[in-house]
UniProtKB/TrEMBL annotation:
Alphabetized GO MF terms: RNA binding
GO annotation terms (biological process): cell wall organization; peptidoglycan biosynthetic process; regulation of cell shape
Keywords assigned by UniProt, alphabetized: Cell shape, Cell wall biogenesis/degradation, Chaperone, Cytoplasm, RNA-binding
Gene3D superfamilies: 3.30.300.20
Places the protein is found: Cytoplasm
Source taxon at top rank: Bacteria
Protein name (Swiss-Prot/TrEMBL): RNA-binding protein KhpA
InterPro entries per UniProt: KH_dom-like_a/b, KH_sf_prok-type, KhpA
Function recorded in the entry: A probable RNA chaperone. Forms a complex with KhpB which binds to cellular RNA and controls its expression. Plays a role in peptidoglycan (PG) homeostasis and cell length regulation.
Family under the similarity heading: Belongs to the KhpA RNA-binding protein family.
Database matches in Pfam families: KH_KhpA-B
Length: 77
């Protein structure tokens, strides 16, 4: 799942080397924390959060069939 998130996000940003994905797995859910360069945060979120929502939709759809846990994607600075 980390590779999928990186594959989606890296072409969107100006500093693809700064893209990192961290995983925090709990009993009932898995949280993916996406970290990008501060100057690229707006590109990842998009106008009114549309890009972030699209990324989450793809990740949730791909992960839903593989994992039987709730999946979250957080964008952090």
């Amino acid at each position: 799942m980390q590779d999928l998130i990186e594959t989606i996000v890296k072409p969107l940003v100006d500093s693809p080397e700064d893209v990192q994905v961290f995983v925090a797995e709990e009993d009932s859910h898995i949280t993916y924390k996406l970290s990008v360069n501060k100057q690229d945060i707006g590109k990842v979120i998009g106008k009114k959060g549309r890009v972030a929502k699209a990324i989450r939709t793809v990740v949730y759809a791909a992960a839903g069939s593989k994992h039987h846990k709730k999946i979250y994607l957080e964008i952090i600075e």
